[in-house]
Write a structure and sequence with these properties.
InterPro entries: His_Pase_superF_clade-1 (IPR013078), His_PPase_superfam (IPR029033)
Radius of gyration: 15 Å
Distance between the termini: 15 Å
Protein name: Phosphohistidine phosphatase SixA
Largest sheet: 6 strands, mixed
CATH class: Alpha Beta
Shape: globular
CATH superfamily: Phosphoglycerate mutase-like
CATH architecture: 3-Layer(aba) Sandwich
Organism: Parasynechococcus marenigrum (strain WH8102)
Number of strands: 6
Helix content: 25-40%
Number of helices: 4
């Protein structure tokens, strides 16, 4: 990843930055098991760690991570926190699958990442960008970076982990 692909967010910045992080690869669903209890696979942890380290190496710094309380999202957010993406991690039930994800935006300012699930994060990105629903999908451990300015939200970055990590064999 080229340095400067992401800009450094300062806590006192008047710009609003929103990063949408989809959780990493999780264990398969098991009949009778609660959907919230699916942790990341070893491969999912490795890929997520590599993506978060690449984001930090590229200069991305956030004020806060806000995550779904589901195991796979919480684990992804903890990896991001440990990589130095943000100094604060909060959990928010509204980021659970099917939840009112957009409501979370009203509670935050500055540079924030939401860690959650598809299709919710992709639909939120489409709504903010004025795109038809479903025209933007976020892959597992994928990243969408949006910035709010005078003309509304703009797409600043879209990272597909396979493009970043494919050559590394992760």
């Amino acid at each position: 990843m080229k340095a400067g692909l992401f800009f450094l967010c300062m806590p006192d910045s008047s710009l609003v930055e929103l990063v949408l992080l989809r959780h990493g690869i999780a264990v398969e669903r098991v009949e009778g098991r609660d959907a919230s209890d699916r942790p990341l696979t070893p491969r999912g942890r490795r890929r997520t760690q590599a993506v978060m380290e690449a984001l930090v190496a590229g200069g991305l710094r956030l004020d806060r991570l806000v995550t779904s309380p589901y195991d796979r999202s919480l684990e992804t957010a903890q990896i991001a926190l440990q990589a130095g993406l943000a100094p604060v991690l909060d959990s928010d039930e509204r980021l659970c699958p099917g939840g009112p994800v957009a409501e979370v935006l009203n509670d935050h300012s500055g540079c924030v990442a939401l860690v959650g699930h598809e299709p919710d994060l992709g639909l939120l990105a489409c709504d903010l960008l004025g795109l038809p629903p479903g025209s933007l999908r976020i892959r597992k451990a994928g990243v969408v970076q949006l910035r709010f300015g005078p003309g509304g939200w703009t797409l600043e970055g879209l990272l597909r982990p396979k493009l970043l990590l494919g050559s590394l064999g992760i």
